[in-house]
Specification:
Elements: H1 7-15, H2 18-40, H3 47-60, H4 70-77, H5 93-114, H6 117-137, H7 144-155, H8 163-179
Helix pairs in contact: 1-6, 2-3, 2-5, 2-6, 2-7, 2-8, 3-5, 4-5, 5-6, 6-7, 7-8
């Protein structure tokens, strides 16, 4: 699979321990899921979906062990409209970025359950794709892709100090930028 994930990061995921894989996807999900939450907050009948996403991201940060219900969470996510687009596909800005948030969380949960590098790589790829798309649509580029690449490398550096805070801040920044995009 071709992936946007930097070679050194991909190698670290393939050779790292289970906890390193889980920490990596927790951080990726923390940065991506705000796109879904922000784009879908206040929509009728989506409260349970929002709650599932928030609770899942929170649980992913317990990287020393897999979530006991990760497979059930994945099945629930697979029922989200974002992962089951109609014939026209996803055509609006909100839908596009919400899709990437859900997709990244799906792969994060799979990686959390299995600690398989392929799921972690797919998670990282989804987030990098969203940030690249955001950069292309923000006037003068936003530096979101470069920031994401840096944070992905940082999550595997062995020094997790401040990673959660940096991931929360990056997730908020990208959400604010998406809000400024046309429909």
């Amino acid at each position: 699979m071709d992936t946007l994930v930097e070679g050194a990061v991909a190698q670290a995921l393939r050779t790292g321990d289970d906890e390193a894989v889980r920490l990596y996807v927790a951080a990726c999900a923390e940065r991506a899921v705000p796109l879904f939450i922000g784009m879908r907050a206040g929509m009728p009948d989506r409260e349970a979906h929002l709650d599932l996403c928030v609770e899942s991201v929170r649980g992913l940060w317990c990287a020393d062990r897999p979530l006991p219900d990760a497979a059930e969470r994945v099945r629930a996510l697979e029922g989200f409209p974002e992962l089951r687009p109609g014939e026209e596909g996803i055509t609006d800005t909100a839908g596009t970025f919400a899709f990437f948030g859900v997709l990244a969380l799906r792969y994060a949960l799979l990686a959390n359950a299995t600690a398989e590098a392929r799921h972690a790589l797919s998670c990282g790829h989804a987030v990098l794709t969203a940030m690249g798309l955001l950069d292309r649509n923000v006037a003068a580029g936003g530096g979101f892709l470069a920031q994401e690449e840096s944070l992905q490398a940082r999550s595997l550096s062995g020094d997790a100090a401040g990673l959660w805070e940096a991931s929360v801040a990056a997730g908020r920044e990208s959400f604010r930028a998406v809000l400024g995009l046309p429909g």
